[in-house]
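User: Hi! I'm working on a homework problem where we have to compare a predicted structure to a textbook description. Could you give me the structure for the chain below?
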Amino acid sequence: MDDDIKKEVDKTEQVEDSKIDFRKLSDKGSKGSKLDRIVTIVLLAICVALAASVILNMGGDEKAITTPDSAETAAVINVQAEAAEEGTFIRTTRINGEIGSDGTSVSVVPDTSGKISKILVRKGDMVKKGDVIAYVDPSRPGSSFLESPVTAPVDGEISDVPAIIGQTVSVSTPVATIVGDKTLNIVAKVPERYIGTLELGLEATFTSIAYPGEEFTGSITYISPNVDTTTRTAEIELEILSDTSKLKEGMYVSLSLVTERIENALMVPTTAVSEFTGGNIVYVADGTTARRTVVETGSSNGVSTVILSGLNPGDMVITAGTVADGSTINVLQ
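Assistant: Happy to help. Predicted structure tokens:
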């Protein structure tokens, strides 16, 4: 019996010991598990760091090899460029005018009274001084006289023949009108703002709707000293330098008047000039690079612009192509 009791006690102690051991093991296992997790995390972090380093190194190498070529290819901009050149700058203004003349009109009258018996000319005929243009019969009933000739007092063109055959005329009755030898000119009205640029001898070109596509030339011979206070214009006259055989007095013409001329001006195409931060700039083609250059501009006629400072003759300015300072460019020939 005692042995049985003893065995039971031993079993109980073993069970108790087992419980104690499980707790210890549990505590021990818990500590080991935490340590393992820490070690695992550290190892993973090291692996990640190593992997990242490898990737970055590989990426850096790839960038070092491939990026410059692709970037260079993408950045090249095709442009057009022209050289800044010295020459004569001309600015013109288009105004309207009319062809006139400096010829004078002369009325032709007979030397005696009577009836017109003959008329030898008509409008448009050219006559010389002394040419007979008509005859007057001065006879009265019961008397007989020779016909009296009516002669041209000047050279010129017959512009009017108001008399008719059979008409009774006196020594004050016009038989015809002659416009003396005349020189055609152009009369035009110039806006006040351009008067300061005008000078005698300044050249102009003009066209007429009667001869489309044909251009004539002239030069200023007169500038009015007064300005019309209503229209704010001044009258000018121009001598016609071209052949005037096609032109007629009274024709309407369109004048291209030179209002400014600058000799030895440094010019660039107006399309090359742009604004930047309140000033004017051009982009200069410096080899394969675009360089922003600040310039001082003068007059412009819409095609060319005068450069007062900032450029030298021969500098290649970009006229077409969107660039920025430092852009890599390819100048098209």
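For your comparison, note the following. The chain is about 20% helix and 45% strand. The CA atoms of residues 43 and 49 lie 10 Å apart. Good luck with the assignment!
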